[in-house]
Amino acid sequence: MKEDGMKESFIIQVRGLFAYYGRNQVLKNINLNIEENKITAIIGPSGCGKTTLIRCFNRLFEMAPDSSSSGSILYKDNDIALHDPIDLRREIGMVFQRANPFPTMHIYNNVLAGYHLNGRHLKKSDADRIVEETLKKAALWDEVRDKLFQSPQRLSGGQQQRLCIARTIAVCPKVILLDEPCAALDPISTYRIEELMLTLKKDYTIVIVTHNMQQAARVSDYTAFLMLGNLIEFGLTNQIFTSPKNKRTEEYITGRFG
Amino acid sequence: MNKKAKSVFNGDKVFRDVLFLTAGFIVILLIIIFILLIHHSRPSIGAFGLGFLFRQRWNPGSNKFGALPFIAGTLITSAGAVLITIPFSISTSLFIKEYASSWLGNLISHMVDLLAAIPSVIIGMWGIFVLVPVMRSIEMILYSHFAFIPLFNAPPIGVGLLSAIFILVIMTLPYSISITRDSMVQVPVSLKEGAYALGATRWRMVRSVIIPYCKNGIIGGTMLALGRAMGETMAVTMVIGNSTRLPRTLFDPANTIASLLANQFNEASGTLYVSSLIQLALILFIISLLINITGRIIVHKMKMT
Amino acid sequence: MTIMMLRLGYKYQKFQDRLATCVVYFLTFLTVLPLFLVVGYIVLNGFRHFSLDLLIKNPAPVGEAGGGVLNGIIGSVIIIVIAALMGIPIGVLGGVYLAEAKESRFKHILRIAVEILQGIPSIVIGIVVYLLIVLPMRGFSALAGGVALAIIMLPVIVISTEESLRLVPHELKEAGIALGVPGWRVSLFVVLRTGLGGVISGILLSLSRIAGETAPLLFTVLGSQFFSLKITQPMAALPLQIFNYSISPYPEWHSIGFAVSFLLLIFILTINIMTRTVIEKMSYKRR
């Protein structure tokens, strides 16, 4: 939502973020803004801190042993450190690298996991509606509509990942973080998820970490390039991939390393 | 800078507190056990001191008590049983892991687990009606032909140290096997394949790769089995003959600390008598504790390499 | 010449290998043999002396034939239930603590305490509970027996619960947290829920184990000839009856002993086999 015609609204703003595991510095002075209802990709070679960065957004990072950070991250102009982490995670959801549907629940309940696990039980009519809507939004409805009460283990990898996306959407977040969601998937499933993201961006802000540059180029509006914990360059995807300002960005993109 | 926001109902805190209290309860329980045993042993410790461990006479009538026959009984039966167990447990573990096909290995493994599940008192019952008569015949033969060996120089009655050792072998085998099996699982496949690739036969590979690698596991496992064997009560009680004299031959009836307690504790009266029995329980506790700790450390050493 | 020596050397290796294989097979056979000897003997004799009376009558007076072990069956059930009510909650919570809490010195102490507790001979536990409960209560009771059995099953449940929970993949926990679920709910409704199969099979196995325990009952429950439901009084229990009947001089009691052993054995072996096959198939396995 634009506040006035000129100023863009940034749903997430990162200011001077440093992150450490023990004495190991993983992120160094990160400053960037995530624009609402756009797809921002975070790319970079392995170990550059991209996963750490998005884990800071939903405060998952601080739960790791020995982790510490300084600087601030603003969500809707409020410091997330002052936010209740549990409420925050209901607004900023995450999809992981390997699909992790809950094995003890069937598909229907997996979608509603965000409610059930929090002890919120819905009327059957509401539950049915939410399940159908989110599975449709996740482009999974047609494939599972007649096996809603089966175990998610029976689905393919790509279907399980879309189920996890549905599960995340079901609690109505504003932001969806995706940590290399297609890393374990075949090209066709990858393609479907990329298509999915393009439709989701209407209603959600998407931040995707990927080591697949072509994916970033295909899908995202903005791209951030990280290397060894430093933000090397950040800007419109078009510009980053056609005329990168930083030499190292160019080297990474053209495959000189990484 | 990482400040956690405050929430209204802190389910996390309640959860953590409940868990912590439960954990604390378990630790306190252990401490209470220890304290109770020491407290009620005091009269006996006061009366006999360190000599308790070496005195032979156990006479409730004259209020004179000595632990030696029972410490000896415990050590002889447990150590004897465990030593005999070693080749069996190594062989069975090898069989399960290396020699048998996967379904046969699994089957044998499950059968060993079932053996472990049989209650001590039922094995004891089998011991009384099957083992003891058989042992009596065997001991007869040994006595008539080998009585010159001091170990066999006593009239065979069937119950006694030898039967107890035998039944302890049956009872500790499953435990021993599970520990040996666990250490064998850890042998890296690459080491085994390396030996085979050099043209080793299976036995050669076992001898040069598996056994040395599992050495600590086997020794540690033996100690743990020893600790287990010392605490075994019912089956031993039913075949050991219940004597309070220091056994001199393998055929003599005897008592382990555990079997003495089972036999006498309920009938005991008089502070010194009861206290001596409790002191015996304390001694058993401490000995098996030390042996278990030693065994764990040795097994742990193997996991570290 | 060298080739011949090599061939002889190899032949010796092969001979050793075959000999070793025979020894391994033979010793394994001997190891498994007692299972069949014991079970076979108990089943044969127990079945022979088994009658329905056993399940519905109480023991007959000394010297009289007939009678049953109804008091023992009910008594064992009551004592096990008492033990379970104490041992299972504390054991599972202890296991959850070890699996979920942050590493700390206290956690280390707890681990050691559980290990030590597990290694205490069951007869020593019986004596401790005698001192702890029977003396103050001035009498034997089923309650004391339940406490003793609870102490015995406690470390077993803690260890098996911790192991089952550790098998639950970290990713499932993260999925729960990422959905905005508080930590305690994730521990209970995701981790525990997923590892439940393993936890339950650990509980069942420990129940089958205490069903056969005799030593701790000797000084706590004492046993009884009569039928009783009072948990603050002595009570009959199957393992105690087996023990007393076996060492008695009366053949009629021996027969009852066999039959009861048969009963108990079938019960315990059934639970064991069922747990290991059925429940483990149902519990969560990583793909």
Write the layout of secondary structure elements.
The complex is a heterotrimer of chains A (258), B (305) and C (287).
Chain A: E1 10-21, E2 24-35, E3 39-43, H1 50-57, E4 67-75, E5 78-79, H2 85-91, E6 92-95, H3 107-111, H4 113-116, H5 124-137, H6 141-144, H7 157-170, E7 175-179, H8 187-200, E8 205-209, H9 213-219, E9 222-227, E10 230-236, H10 237-242, H11 247-253
Parallel strand pairs in A: 3-8, 3-9, 6-7, 7-8
Antiparallel strand pairs in A: 1-2, 1-4, 4-5, 9-10
Helix pairs in contact in A: 5-7, 7-8
Chain B: H1 11-48, H2 68-99, H3 102-117, H4 120-146, H5 161-185, H6 189-197, H7 202-213, H8 215-231, H9 234-239, H10 257-264, H11 271-304
Chain C: H1 2-49, H2 53-56, H3 70-100, H4 105-119, H5 122-137, H6 142-166, H7 170-178, H8 183-194, H9 196-211, H10 215-218, H11 238-247, H12 251-282
Helix pairs in contact in C: 1-12, 3-6, 3-9, 3-11, 4-6, 5-6, 6-9, 7-8, 9-12, 11-12
Structural overview:
The complex is a heterotrimer of chains A (258), B (305) and C (287). Chain A is an alpha/beta fold and 258 residues long. Chain A contains eleven helices and ten strands. In chain A, a hairpin with a 2-residue loop joins β9 (222-227) and β10 (230-236). In chain A, α5 packs across α7 and α7 packs parallel to α8 (187-200). Chain A starts with 9 loop residues before the first strand and ends in a 5-residue tail after the last helix. In chain B, α1 (11-48) packs across α11 (271-304) and α3 crosses α5 (161-185). Chain B is built from eleven helices and no strands. With 305 residues, chain B is mainly alpha-helical. The longest helix of chain B is centred in the N-terminal third of the chain and has 38 residues, at 11-48. Chain C has one domain (53-286): MetI-like (MetI-like fold, Orthogonal Bundle), CATH 1.10.3720. The longest helix of chain C is centred in the N-terminal third of the chain and has 48 residues, at 2-49. The radius of gyration of chain C is 25 Å and the shape is flat. Chain C starts with a helix and ends in a 5-residue tail after the last helix. At the B-C interface, α1, α2, α3, α4 and α5 of B face α1, α3, α4, α5 and α6 of C.
